[in-house]
Amino acid sequence: LDDPGLDIAAGEEFLQEVFQILLEEGVRKSMDVTQKVCDWKEPQELRELLDLELRSDGEGRERLLQRCRDVLRLSVRTGHPRFFNQLFSGLDHHALAGRFLTETLNTSPYTYEVAPVLVLMEEQVLAKLRELVGWSSGDGIFAPGGSMSNMLAMNVARFQRFPESRSRGNWDLPRLGLFASQESHYSILKGAALLGIGTDNVHLVRTDERGKMIPEELEKEIQRVKAEGSEPLFVCATSGTTVLGAFDPLDAIADVCARHGLWLHVDAAWGGSALLSPQLRHLLAGIHRADSVTWNPHKLLMVGLQCSAFLLRDSSGLLQRCHGVGASYLFQRDKFYDVSLDTGDKSPQCGRRADGLKLWILWKAVGTWGLGQRVERAFAATRYLLEQVKRREGFQLVTEPEFINLCFWFIPPSLRGQESSPEFWDKLGKVAPAIKEKMIRRGSMMVGYQPHGSRVNFFRQIITNPAVTRQDLDFFLDEIQELGWDL
Ligand code: ABU
Q1: CA-based nearest residue to 446, from 4, 40, 10
Q2: Which of 16, 21, 99, 441 is the most buried (most CB within 10 A)?
């Protein structure tokens, strides 16, 4: 115990080398279009390559550095300009610096005393996001992902209507009714299960052909559920659905909620960033009328996983009353500073990642204007691709995109002209998975596909990465055409 139990000098040297590897393998190569997006290996081959077994003795420096290289080399390069697989992609150097800072600090922003800088940054970032929603006051907290933010909304809504449910649980509550569109995120169902409300009590409201909730159908569902003896509580409108990128009509939905006294939550995990663009913020017209909002800057703003803000219009301390327990070893009331800055008790979590810092530093780097430009560039890239899809033979749109989700089928030459045959759609449904397998094995790019309702598998192209150029988009369509030509 007379000396430190770890070699600090060797640790620093190791880190310096790791930073070089991170820069070369993790950042530079990840953004280099001449590199593969992924280096596909079968799971058993990958297990063997990684030599995963954990042994009683540690390994030497060179071996560990090689392991760091392997992690980066054998992982999917989500910062690559041809990675289009998820609602997140790309690599922002400033946000990454924020992630390094957060990791290095290794603290939880639950109290001002252990995270003074991070608590104040979180406060500032949340206030700016609320301002963009249209609220001059309010509350909020960062949550581990949009699903958790949506669940917080459901919990706070229940607490606001039935404060006693916090201590007494669900046993003497009426049967509650939650409403969300057929296109809403699956976390609404998960949340209902987790909170003991029950998935049977989530009522999925019909959408139009573009995937938007139909407010008249919401009204009808509420009436029906009331007539059956349930108590409607909560409506989740979606601003940017996962597959089609649809925006529910918030003003009309807010009218329905106001008429019935229901909590309105807007899941803007994907589409919230459109609020930064003067050209696109109309998509969320009426969002200021919501009681709560989920917004994930880790998606369109490229902040890095994860960064999900749960925003609340209430400024009376509802969030604190709903979740706070006041652990005596963290939230002492007799501290020498302003204890309202010990914000961690607003969250159901104890240890919590400081997800505000990376957004704060990115915001400082590019400004509100720069963030808006990112959104508009993503939108412009989608418009370019849309024109090309319309122009090229064999590509067929699923629906006219409203936002950044471009959904389309590729019809190989062997199926063209057979659209009226009974087997056509079955056969077409096998095309996207076959093309996807080929592209992953080749490592040339990644894009998602899915069936959706009665529609067979189609591609969902998402462009969020400002490193993506017109050449990448042309390549994207050429590659699909080439990989799918012989199917
Ligand atoms: N709500 C998470 C969406 C996952 C994805 O498609 O990237």
Answers
A1: 40
A2: 99
